[in-house]
Amino acid sequence: MAGKSILETAVIVNTRVVAERTYISTIRSPQIAPIVEAGQFVMASFQNTLDPLLPRAFSVCDVMDDTLSLLYVAVGRGTKKISGLLPGEKLILNGPLGTGFPRMERGQNIWIAVGGSGAAIVPILSRSAVRAGSRLRFFYGARSKSQLVPFEISSDIAYSTDDGTAGFHGNVVGNLKQELKQAEPDMLFGCGPTPMLVSMQKEFGDKIPTYLSVETPMACGMGFCQGCPVKKRGDASYYLACKDGPVFRSTDIEFEVKP
Ligand SMILES: Cc1cc2nc3c(=O)[nH]c(=O)nc-3n(C[C@H](O)[C@H](O)[C@H](O)COP(=O)(O)OP(=O)(O)OC[C@H]3O[C@@H](n4cnc5c(N)ncnc54)[C@H](O)[C@@H]3O)c2cc1C
Ligand code: FES
Questions:
Q1: Which CATH code, of 2.40.50.180, 2.40.30.10, 3.90.226.10, 3.30.70.270, is assigned to 6-97?
Q2: 151 lines ligand 1 (CB under 6 A)
Q3: What does the pLDDT look like over 6-38, one tens digit per residue?
Q4: Which fold has domain 109-254?
Q5: Nearest bound ligand to CA 214?
Q6: What pTM was estimated for this model as a whole?
Q7: Which of 16, 78, 135, 196 could form a cystine bridge with 56, CB 3.0-4.6 A?
C-alpha cells in the first residue's frame, strides 16, 4: 500500500554487470530501503545537474538492511549515467512510490511472468514469498541467453528465449500457456514490456486473478503532472500509473495500444 514518500540522497555502494547491457546497482538508502514493498518503485535523479531533466522510474529490485538495489538495462541517457556512477557517488531517490503487488498468503501458488527490465522484481518478490510462506514460480523471457540475469533465489525459474538459446524456444507467454495446461496458480503476476502484458491480459486476465505492473512513462511519479494515464476498463476515465499503480488488476484496465 502506498504511504508517504521520502526524498533521499542515496550513495552508490557498487554496480555490477549481470547480463548484456544489464546492471544491478546496490545503493545505501537508509530511509527508503526499510519501507519498500514488492512492486513499488523509486524516481532517480542526479545531484547538481538537470541532465537528464526528468527523473527516471525504477522498480526496486531487492532490499537488504539499509541498502536497496536497482536492476536496469542501459538503453539511454539516464541508465547509462547511473551505470557509470562510482562507489561513494550520489543518486537522489524519491520513494517508495506507487502500489505494489497484492499481499501473498501462506500456501498460495503464484506464477510470475517477467521480461526485459521487468525482471527487476524477481529478487524482492522471492524474498517476500519466503516471509509470507507462499510458493512462487517465475517465467522469465528474453530475446537471447546473453540477456538473462542469473538470479540466485530460492524460487523456481522457467526460462524462455526468442532464439532458443536457453529454456523454452519462444516467448514467455507461450511458455506460460504450455504450463497452464498442467496446473493453475492462485494468482498470476506480470512485469515487462507492454506487448507481453497485453498478451497476458488477453490470454489469462479473465480466467485467473492476474496483476500487471505497467511501464507507462512517468515524469513526476507522484500524481502531479497527470502524465501517466492508464485507461479504466469499461469507463471513459483514467487511472494514474504512478499513484493508482503501477500494479493493476488486469480486469480493471485497458491497454491503448497504437496500431
Ligand atoms: C514504474 C516503472 C518502473 C520501471 N522500472 C524499471 C527498472 O526496474 N529497470 C529499468 O531498466 N527500467 C525501468 N523502467 C523504465 C525506466 O524508467 C526508463 O524509462 C528506462 O530505464 C530508460 O531510461 P533512459 O534514461 O536510460 O532512456 P531514455 O533516454 O529515456 O530513452 C532512450 C531511448 O531508449 C528507449 N528505451 C526506453 N526503455 C527501453 C528499453 N527497456 N529497451 C529498449 N529501449 C528502451 C526509449 O524509447 C528511447 O528511445 C521503469 C518504468 C516505470 C514507469
Ligand atoms: S508521473 Fe506525474 S502524474 Fe504520474
A1: 2.40.30.10
A2: no
A3: 999 999 999 999 999 999 999 999 999 999 999
A4: Rossmann fold (3.40.50)
A5: 1
A6: 0.94
A7: 78
